[in-house]
Amino acid sequence: MSIILEVNNLNTRFDTPEGEVSAANNINFTLQKGQSLGVVGESGSGKTQIFMAIMGLLAKNGRTSGEAIFKGQNLLGLPVVELNKVRGVSLSMIFQDPMTSLNPYLKVSRQMTEVLIEHQGLDKESALERSIRMLELVGIPEARKRVHMYPHEFSGGMRQRVMIAIALLCEPDLLIADEPTTALDVTIQAQILELLHSLKEEMGMSIVMITHDLGVIAGMCDHVMVMYGGRVVETGTVHEIFNDARHPYTQGLLQSMPRIDGNHNEDLYAIPGQPPNLQALPSGCAFQPRCQYADAQCRSTQPEPAALSQHRMIACHHITVAKDLIPAMESA
Amino acid sequence: MSLLAKPNDRMAAVLDQQAEACIDEIAGRSLWQDARIRLMRNKAAVVSMIILTIITLLAIFAPWLSSHPFDEVYWDFIQVAPNFSEGFWFGTDENGRDLFVRTLYGARVSLMVGLVATTVSLIIGVTYGAVAGYMGGRVDNLMMRFVDILYSLPFMFFVIILMVIFGRHIFLIFVALGAVEWLTMARIVRGQTMAIKKKEFIEAAHASGVSTTKIIFRHIVPNILGPVIVYMTLTIPQVILTESFLSFLGLGVQEPLTSWGVLISEGAKVMESAPWMLAFPATFLAVTLFCFNFIGDGLRDALDPKDR
Amino acid sequence: MMSDPILKVENLKVHFPVDVGTFFSNKAQLKAVDGVSFELNEGETLAIVGESGCGKSTLGRAVLQLLHNTEGQVIWMGENITGYSVKAMRPLRNEMQIIFQDPLASLNPRMTIGEIIAEPLATHNPDMPKEQVKSRVREMMDIVGLLPRMINRYPHEFSGGQCQRIGIARAMILQPKVIVCDEPVSALDVSIQAQIINLLGELQKRFGLSLLFISHDLSIIRHISHRVMVLYLGNVMEIAEKDELYNSPRHPYTQALISAVPVPDPDKEAHKKRIVLKGDLPSPINPPSGCVFRTRCLYADQQCEREKPDLNTLTEASVKSTHQVACHKQAEIHRTN
């Protein structure tokens, strides 16, 4: 298997009137072709900013360092002209709110064919044909008729499909999906997840799924990266994360998820405290104020990521302590 | 589960202890305070505020700043250029009156017109707009059609009729300007009110049985003050300019009282022979307008930082 | 538990007039809630679940008389309060409160949290001395897990979870009997959701509260509710006790909803049989004839197109008598499964 995306020591910072804010620190990961990576974290964990940086979509006051090698080419610091040959062609991104990335004043047909004419040099007719085929692929009924409609004439789920169709037009090798189903109802979410899953299987596309919903990750992803306070705290395969979580934050997150299966008569486990404010991160480990194992070392020094295997990494001073808790977790 | 639940309780206990350890209440920082801090970072706005304060102080203390009264005619000094030995710092006008004092007296009238007319428009406009926006439906429709009708009346015609019927009086200028400026204010406030009305905290107040008057004045008005203040700082220069325009047409304040508009009008006539008569009042007017606009911009950025 | 219900809703309808057509405006009715009946008992949590546009939030507000009820009755402790004026409702407002989805938007940004929490108290007890109001506020802040010394701070200085605690304190300060919770945790981070759910459960036990818990999240509902009501296009599809609804859902819509919820377990997800519904929610301005769900239902036939199914109580011996389903094909579907 070949590596499609390799991120080395990526840092993202924002200049604000209150001073410099670090949104993502020392991010390292690789993604194999045809695999899917789930990125989990709460709001402000920096999970979106990593990929905005890779796509070159950071806000004006944002700066990035490190490298993000996509198919052998470092995307960071690439001039816009070069970046545009990659963005929307072999690397696409879809967002939580489809309305923000669709132009409300242009017909869907225009928005779709433009991409094809621009990047693939197709003529108008074949571009339209290709667009209709793509809309059919993402499950839009009567695509031939609907392609000539405006975005607001579609329902929320359909709009999300249109956005996915646009993202897929040039058959990208990697699709970055930022909370693609958060704004949708469960039954529509199920439709979209099913679609993404089949696209991954059929087109051999790699997917990065950014979400806070562990349920979505469990069904979709091969690997998981857990983020907290702008840092990666744990990575592993989906089975390792769900069955053998080692970082106290991952464990807490898994246990605080209300589940439709399992025990419902006890109180939920709740991680105490509040998510960290990136502008005023605590000293040492960012999770330390909310962590039950925190000691003097955690409060003073940032834990270094420790690699257990090629894809397994944990950043915690107390991996051994945490491991002892696994039986307790399974009984819960 | 139980294994994990315990440290959770311990955590809560620690928090409780911390709570008891510092009983004294922490003062919060309101959005107004945040806005003030942001405004103080805006150099143009701060400089503008300083200049405006100086102009205002000059206007207030005008009688004590110069040895010449504003309406005294010096027959020996008709239309002389700035002259420091005699204390005519800005020169004199064609009637031999000291231009420095007259410019400051003009500032009194111009600033007063700006403030009073704006305050009148503020009080009427905010109340009217908030009630219309909050009530909605037919009441809103009726109230806003009335505004539309007033809008469509030709303003100059209105002022001239007032002047003809009641004679030229400074009070009338306040009324005329206030009566026109509140219309825009009412429209702005109505729009803002309709947006705020849909917020959940208004619904929460309803659900607690809070009375309508209290909802309007405790929950809605404080939340629309931001745009209102911004609009106000932009209205003041507009009113000053309108007053100058009226004076320029000869509809403004009566001699020997003066305003910047009157002074500019007089200066413009003798622009070639006595440029100082135009230059000084025009500079004061321009600087004041600039200052208000800079403050307005600064306030807008400070009150709504997202828009930048 | 089965004493007189604290709140009884009978055949409640809320219709909004909407303009359709372009120049000659044709008035149509948006049927947000179309004939809903239920009872809420003391100390009970009834969850109202459904997708966006099913009318669940409208229902919550209509029960509190914050919206005009087109038809039907809301009976509060034996008193028919339907159509009560704002004034007539005022004395009842301290019995029923609401908490909102967006924690920050539900707090007036210009007021300190002390003022926010005190407002209902000051409204209903205008003569209460200031000191007493303040001590009640501090006490309530302590109960919902806020540090009382934060009383003079402003909402924007708090995180989402803490803002929701402030909202809960405001709703609780009059010690109401019923709280309508409108998606109270859906805007919060996962780790904070659990805190708020636990807090609501705790308050319910301590004060004997009844909760009308509106949510689209079936996992959360399973944790907090006693009974669950499933809404679709303003109609009740199914209502049952929690375990029964989750273990043996009878309505095809409920079945699809439950199967669509992702489970945080990769093994279960890999082998799960998921019922994927076709298409989208029809417009509530022009709902389908007969059963409103039929356009997306796998089992729909001509009867479903013609007749609107009644909400019938299940008569089988194996199920509780509180289980009601509105489906013509319910028995058939149950047999084949």
From TrEMBL, chain A:
Q: Name one GO molecular function term.
A: ATP hydrolysis activity
Name the source's superkingdom.
Bacteria
Originating organism = Endozoicomonas elysicola
> PROSITE patterns attached here?
ABC_TRANSPORTER_1, ABC_TRANSPORTER_2
Q: Does the keyword ATP-binding apply?
A: yes
Q: Give the protein family.
A: Belongs to the ABC transporter superfamily.
Predominantly, its location class is membrane
Domain ABC transporter span(s) in chain numbering:
5-254
Example GO BP: transmembrane transport
Q: How does it sit in the membrane?
A: Peripheral membrane protein
SMART domains on file: AAA
Q: Tell me the keywords, alphabetical order.
A: ATP-binding, Cell membrane, Membrane, Nucleotide-binding, Transport
Q: What is this protein called?
A: Oligopeptide transporter ATP-binding component
Q: Where in the cell is it found?
A: Cell inner membrane
Q: Provide the Gene Ontology terms for cellular component.
A: plasma membrane
SUPFAM superfamilies hit by this protein: P-loop containing nucleoside triphosphate hydrolases
UniProtKB/TrEMBL annotation, chain B:
Where does it sit, as one GO cellular component term? plasma membrane
InterPro entries in alphabetical order: BP-dependent_transpt_permease, MetI-like, MetI-like_sf, OppC_N
Q: What is its main location?
A: membrane
TM stretches of this protein: 44-65, 109-134, 146-165, 171-189, 228-253, 273-296
* Domain ABC transmembrane type-1: from-to ranges: 107-296
Q: What keyword terms does UniProt attach to this protein?
A: Cell inner membrane, Cell membrane, Membrane, Peptide transport, Protein transport, Transmembrane, Transmembrane helix, Transport
Q: Does the keyword Transport apply?
A: yes
| Domain of life of the native organism | Bacteria
Localization in the cell: Cell inner membrane; Cell membrane
Identify the Pfam families for this entry: BPD_transp_1, OppC_N
According to its UniProt entry, the protein's GO biological process terms are:
peptide transport; protein transport; transmembrane transport
Xref: Gene3D superfamilies: MetI-like (1.10.3720.10)
Its placement in the membrane is given as: Multi-pass membrane protein
Give the family this protein belongs to, as stated in its UniProt record.
Belongs to the binding-protein-dependent transport system permease family. OppBC subfamily.
Q: What is this protein called?
A: Oligopeptide transport system permease protein OppC
From TrEMBL, chain C:
CDD domains from the xrefs? Answer: ABC_NikE_OppD_transporters
Against PROSITE patterns, the record matches this protein to: ABC_TRANSPORTER_1, ABC_TRANSPORTER_2
- What is the annotated signal peptide range for this record? none
Q: Does the keyword Transmembrane helix apply?
A: no
Q: Where is the ABC transporter domain?
A: 7-258
Q: Which SUPFAM superfamilies match?
A: P-loop containing nucleoside triphosphate hydrolases (SSF52540)
Q: Which domain of life is it from?
A: Bacteria
- Give the molecular function GO annotations: ATP binding; ATP hydrolysis activity
Q: Which GO terms describe its biological process?
A: peptide transport; transmembrane transport
Which keywords does UniProt give here? ATP-binding, Nucleotide-binding, Transport
Q: Which family does it belong to?
A: Belongs to the ABC transporter superfamily.
Q: Which PANTHER family match?
A: D,D-DIPEPTIDE TRANSPORT ATP-BINDING PROTEIN DDPF-RELATED (PTHR43776:SF7), TRANSPORT ATP-BINDING PROTEIN (PTHR43776)
Q: What is this protein called?
A: Peptide ABC transporter ATP-binding protein
- Which organism encodes this protein? Endozoicomonas elysicola
